[in-house]
Amino acid sequence: MSTEPEKQPQQKPKAQAEGVANILTSRSTREAILIPILAVFTGLIIGAIVIIVTNVNALAAWGNFFRDPLKAITASWDAIVLAYGALFTGALGSPSAIIAGFREWFSTGNSAALIQAIYPITESLTASTPYIIAGLALAVGFIAGLFNIGAEGQFLMGALFSAYIGYSITTLPGIIHIPLTMLAGIAGGALWAFLPGFLKAKVGAHEVVTTIMMNYVSYSLSNWLLNGPMKAPGYRPVTPVIENSAMLPRFFPSPLRFNWGFFIALAIALLVFFLIFKTTLGFEIRAVGYNPDASKYAGINIVNNTVVVMLISGGLAGLAGAVQVMGVDHWVSSGYSSGYGFNSIAVALLGNSHPFGVVLAAILFGVLTSGATRMQSIATIPISMISVIQGLIIVFVAAPAIIRTLFRTQIFEKKKPPTGPEAESQESASVKTESESQASAPGSSKS
């Protein structure tokens, strides 16, 4: 008999590749990827119908449909192309203008045309930055089974805290002042989320109610601060402008506002991904979100977990406000949050609460928000149409059964198990493969 210990057979690269392929092609993964995409597509289709209904020329052409049906179809198509063309040109710019700007810059060194050409896409990325960070804040709460609806107030408090540190300290270098200002924003948001998290953990107060109430408290508190202790000289209820040492550097000269904040947001997304999927705390957060009772039975401290998650979520929302102050506005005014917290709920839902999905959803919302102004000026479509499209997208994401009904394909259907001779042949093949692998494994032969 051999005295060497038997070695466990190592998994072959082919088997590993097959495991990864099975994960990527599983029904749940397909749905997680395709439902948001189809929701966006369906929202744009219904938005196109609304554009046709609200377009005077298209309605007039449809009134004479039986006389000239081609004119009605052409007028409708022209209205859709004009509206969505203006939307995406205003959000991403004109490719031909960007190419021409680069050519002029390379040949003459004049960057004026290039700056004008890339202005739309930089504004879209700038608009998406707070959505990325605030969307991650909501996603962390959703993963843990907590509905942090107070991101609006946490965003505002983070902005106020960072603005105060930004304008009140005047002697620090930027390498210290910038991180300190960001930490102040994180502290402001986390502080505003602590009380709802503590009440949820200790007495079971529902976080939806408490976080919404904290939003109203933040509105009133900000109005008092902006008209009192934090008010800049003058009649407007705004804070003083933060010091240059607290501002996030911009990559291009004015009027472009694209700054370091976008890449800070991407780094935060990577950190959240690592936290949720690569750490013990992240495992506990996901476990509590899946089944709190089983997690408690397994020894996870639900009370501590709830408070920690709310602090992380609130801190991220506060950081979103700080980055917006430091990189874009440089001061805080009354009503500063302007829907970032509530829109980030939609971003987290559309991104399926996954950090990378949240980034893509936030960029989409930034594109829609940035291009809405041009759509209104060129196609005379009100900016509220963007809210309609965003609302439709969220409805379809929140109710995936609608998407499954509209797009009846094999993508959303479960594979039926084989029966009869096919099942027997597959079973015998799997048994044969298993026996061969055991026979070829080290230590399987007897000496």
Describe the protein in words:
This protein is mainly alpha-helical. It has two domains: about 30-90 and about 365-410, no CATH class; about 125-350, no CATH class. It has 18 helices and no strands. It has helices at about 15-25, 25-55, 55-65, 70-90, 95-110, 110-145, 150-170, 175-205, 205-225, 260-280, 280-290, 290-295, 300-330, 340-350, 355-380, 385-400, 400-405, 420-440. Helix 7 (about 150-170) packs across helix 13. The protein is globular and about 70 Å long.
How would you describe this structure in keywords?
447 residues; mainly alpha; 2 domains; globular; single chain
Summarize the SSE layout with pairings.
Blueprint lengths: L12 H12 L2 H28 L1 H8 L5 H24 L2 H14 L3 H32 L7 H18 L5 H30 L3 H20 L34 H18 L1 H11 L1 H6 L4 H28 L10 H11 L4 H25 L4 H15 L1 H7 L14 H20 L7
Helix pairs in contact: 2-4, 2-16, 3-4, 4-6, 4-15, 5-6, 6-10, 6-13, 6-14, 6-15, 7-8, 7-9, 7-13, 7-14, 8-9, 8-13, 10-11, 10-15, 14-15
